[in-house]
Amino acid sequence: MIELGVNIDHVATLREARKGKEPDLIAAAKVCELAGAHQITVHLRQDRRHIHDADVRQLRDVLQVRLNLEMAATDDIIAIAHCVKPEVVCLVPENRREVTTEGGLDVAGQVDRLTEVVKGFRDDGIKVSMFIDPDLDQVEASAETGANFVELHTGAYANADDLDRYNELERLVQAARRAVNSGLVFNAGHGLTVRNLRPVAAIPGLNEVNIGHSIISRAVFLGLHAAVAEILDILRECTK
Ligand code: PXP
Questions:
Q1: 213 has catalytic annotation
Q2: 43 tagged catalytic
Q3: Is the beta carbon of 70 within 6 A of some atom in ligand 1?
Q4: Cβ of 7 below 6 Å from ligand 1
Q5: Alpha-helix residue ranges (DSSP H) falling in the chain
Q6: Degrees (nearest 5) of the Cα angle 60, 64, 66?
Q7: In 10 A of CB 162, how many CB atoms?
Q8: Catalytic residue among 70, 94, 168, 208
Q9: Is the Cα torsion angle 103, 29, 35, 85 positive or negative in sign?
Q10: CA of 155 to the centre of ligand 1 (A)
C-alpha cells in the first residue's frame, strides 16, 4: 500500500497563535497514528515558527510510527537531527519569508556538499529524502548524492488549472520513472487533497505521500481521525 505521512506542522501553528499548549501536538500525532498513518512529518524551521526542538524530541520518544524530519541542510539543524535520530530526514529549501515550502531543493547545484550530508546521516542509520521539483536533472543529482528517496513536489500540479494539470502530472510521471530507474524510492507531497490525490497515487512506483494542510483543514470539520482515514481509504483504493 502507498504509505501516508501526516504533516502536523499546522497543529503547532495553531498552538503558536496563542503561544500556549493547545492544541496538543503529541495528542495530534497519536490520533494520526491510531487512524493508521504510517509516519508523522514535522518541519523544524530555522525560525521555529511552529515546530520547536522540544516537540521533535518528544515525538521521537512517543511515536510508534516513523518520524520524518523535514529540515534545511544547515549545520545547526543537521546537528539536532543527529541527536534526535528520526528514521528519515527530508532535506528541503528554506526561505524565511515564505508561507510554506515554495519549491524543491536545488540538489544539482550542491551535489558535493549534499553527498557529504547524506553520508553523515546514512552512517548514523538515518535515511535521507530530497524534496525536489519533478525535474530530471534534480532527480539524477539526488541519486548521485546517495539519498534513499526523492519526494517530488506536487505543488505545481495541485495549483494548476485544468489545462496545465495534465502537463504537471506528466512531469511527475517522467520524474518518478527516472527516480525508480536511478535506484531511488519515490515519494510525493505538497498541496495534495482528497480531490487531487488519485491521479498522483496512480503513478507507478509511488511509495508514500506526505500531506499536511488539507488533512488539518478538514479535521476542523470532520475530526482528525476521520480526516486521516479518508486519505488512507483513497490510498488503499488506488493500491488495488
Ligand atoms: N512535503 C514537504 C517536503 C513539505 O515541505 C510539505 C509542507 O510543509 C508537505 C509535504 C505537506 O504539504 P501540504 O501541507 O501542502 O500538504
A1: no
A2: yes
A3: yes
A4: yes
A5: 9-18, 25-35, 53-62, 75-84, 111-123, 136-145, 155-159, 162-181, 197-201, 213-222, 224-239
A6: 65
A7: 6
A8: 70
A9: positive
A10: 9
The CA-based diameter of the chain, rounded to the nearest angstrom, is 47
Q: Clarify whether 70 is annotated catalytic.
A: yes
Q: Is 192 in the pocket of ligand 1 (CB under 6 A)?
A: yes
How many A from CA of 240 to the centre of ligand 1? 25
Assigned fold of 3-239: TIM Barrel (3.20.20)
Catalytic residue among 10, 94, 190, 208: 190
Q: Are 50 and 9 in contact (CB under 8 A)?
A: yes
Q: How confident is the model at residue 102 (pLDDT cuts 50, 70, 90)?
A: confident
Contact (CB, 8 A) for 149 and 129: yes
Per-position b or e across 78-112, b if 16+ CB within 10 A of its CB: beebeebebebbbbbbbeeeeeebebbbebbeeee
Residue whose Cα lies nearest atom 5 of ligand 1: it is: 101
How far is the centre of ligand 1, averaged over its atoms, from the C-alpha of 83 (Å)? 23
Count CB-CB contacts under 10 A for residue 13.
16
pLDDT digits (tens, 9 = 90+) for 103-145: 899 999 999 999 999 999 999 999 999 999 999 999 999 999 9
Q: pLDDT per residue over 146-201, tens digit each?
A: 999 999 999 999 999 988 999 999 999 999 999 999 999 999 999 999 999 999 99
Residue 181: its pLDDT value, please?
97
